[in-house]
Design a protein that fits this description.
By secondary structure, this protein is mainly β. Helices cover about 5% and strands about 45% of the residues. The protein contains 2 helices and 10 strands. The strands form 2 sheets. Strands 1, 2, 3, 4, 7, 8, 9 and 10 form an 8-stranded antiparallel sheet that branches. A hairpin with a 4-residue loop joins strand 7 and strand 8. It is globular and about 80 Å long.
Length: about 190
Amino acid sequence: MGKINSKDIRFAPHGRILMGTADAPMPALPAAATAFDDSTPITGFTDLGYVSEEGAEIAPSLSTNDIPVWQSAAPATTVITGAGLTVTFRLMQFDKDTTALFFGGKWVKSDTTPVTSMLTLPSTPELVTKALIIMWGDSTRVAALYIPRAQVNEREGFTLTRTNPNSLAMTFKALDANGKLGDLIVSGDMTAG
């Protein structure tokens, strides 16, 4: 059991959400000095830009089923019936990557002048699988949740108003990736102590 240590209290004043093709390998975790500089690209991943100040919510889940027996009022054992991992966030930029991800389509540019772009919302959308990196930390430590295979599981509606910006809220659900949902990577040695 660990001892009381205020250095182990973590905050997330900085963060980035990155998307890549499904099963894109997790690159090396960047140093804190460059991790949150959006001019420093992360190889194989696209930065999804500004995220609302609420950041990202990461929620692992577990479904179980109790096995009751005649001889006891308490279950004799419990079996796992499902495991999950979801990440929810609200993207603040309304650009090519974020809107295609949110609406589930592809942008097409017209051949006319003036140029227009159109994203068709398919009546039977494809479930597109992506790799995600949720990276957070402060000036000394970096943490990242790497999900090699995830799909948009849920989208929240947005309201067009005069004073509030558009935001694209969505939840990604992790899929099985050879026996894992994802990897949590942190700077420093978490195995010591």
